[in-house]
């Protein structure tokens, strides 16, 4: 996974859905790693990540949560008289908040701590969003009871203290601007007493103890296999389960279907015709998208507004009491962007890439770039996808918006075509999300997950393929 600060950009190999078919949240798996200073915690964590070979693993270091020092305290630290190995040196409130949000799948801004200034770097953070696994490491990784309770697996790295001292001297001189005498002074006054008093006793809370740290490759490999088994047991085949749901005949109350006028029926006839040229397909798809978006505008708040016409007459009308941002579920959702721009010329548009894993049918999040205005109080999100089949991709996309603090009742999900299974699945999980579609297709093949033949791949027909 990679992140880009400030613009809500993420990318990775793919993250599975947050919600099972019963609508319940799927928490990520948290591994806590503790041990003495320079015992090899980070190296063990990196080895686990490499061995796991799964996407969306977040390495969270406790060093990021040191408290800022005052100018007076900085002077003390520069004299090597400040105790950085005390539990009081950490901001546990921020740590708990960060771990809690990550476990819930929400975006967090992890501070960057500068060991030379002994302060967090101003206006710079590591933005992290979405995780299958969180590897949390630090000397007090198993110290705080509230954080401890959220962990699925607790590990203690037990390395000989002489080896730890040698590693600490090498690291602090090379990376943190200390001299050797200063490192030894801190070790004798603070590091060793803190280890004996606070850190070593947390060993009893560990599920697994790894002697010798990174040198113990056998123990690390066995630990990795255990984590992989745990992840596999948690995995739910939600997409296939949802495809086999037999939905009620009556649509949920939050689903709005365009009235089947002659125009709507004619547009669908043209779009479904396999003989329709790509040029005509684009033209009529844009027209249909415009009608869907115009219907969605009826669900937004308005306020009275008087305007004076060129003939000097006052007209009592309504003004839109909201801003609109569009979010496309790539690639087919991008087919509605032209329609959105036709109706709302100043709408900003973000993108979410969700693709299906070919091995298990699960939707996976690969990329997300959301408009910076999504959190504003008067902004509504038009979430766009061409076709709603099982609803798995829609569940994930809505969850992404919620994780970025968009209220559920300010999301309007738009599509050209929807199957009852997908509509009921999304409505059960998110009843306050309005869903607007131009047509509900009763036919959904649970084995192929394609709608009625003739529509084909909407994105390919609209944007073309490399062979076109």
Automatic annotation (TrEMBL):
Report the GO molecular function annotations: ATP binding; cytidine kinase activity; uridine kinase activity
What are the Phosphoribosyltransferase domain coordinates in residue numbering? 260-465
GO terms for biological process, alphabetical? CTP salvage; UMP salvage
Matching entries from InterPro entries are given as: P-loop_NTPase, PRK/URK, PRTase-like, PRTase_dom, Uridine_kinase-like
Q: Which reaction does it catalyse?
A: cytidine + ATP = CMP + ADP + H(+); uridine + ATP = UMP + ADP + H(+)
- Swiss-Prot/TrEMBL keywords: ATP-binding, Kinase, Nucleotide-binding, Transferase
Q: Return the CDD domains for the record.
A: UMPK (cd02023)
| Pathway terms, separated by semicolons | Pyrimidine metabolism; UMP biosynthesis via salvage pathway; UMP from uridine: step 1/1; Pyrimidine metabolism; CTP biosynthesis via salvage pathway; CTP from cytidine: step 1/3
The Phosphoribulokinase/uridine kinase domain, residue ranges: 30-218
Look up keyword Ribonucleoprotein and say if it applies. Answer: no
Query: What are the EC numbers?
Result: 2.7.1.48
Broad EC category = transferase
As for family, the record states: Belongs to the uridine kinase family.
Q: What is this protein called?
A: Uridine kinase
Organism of origin: Linnemannia elongata AG-77
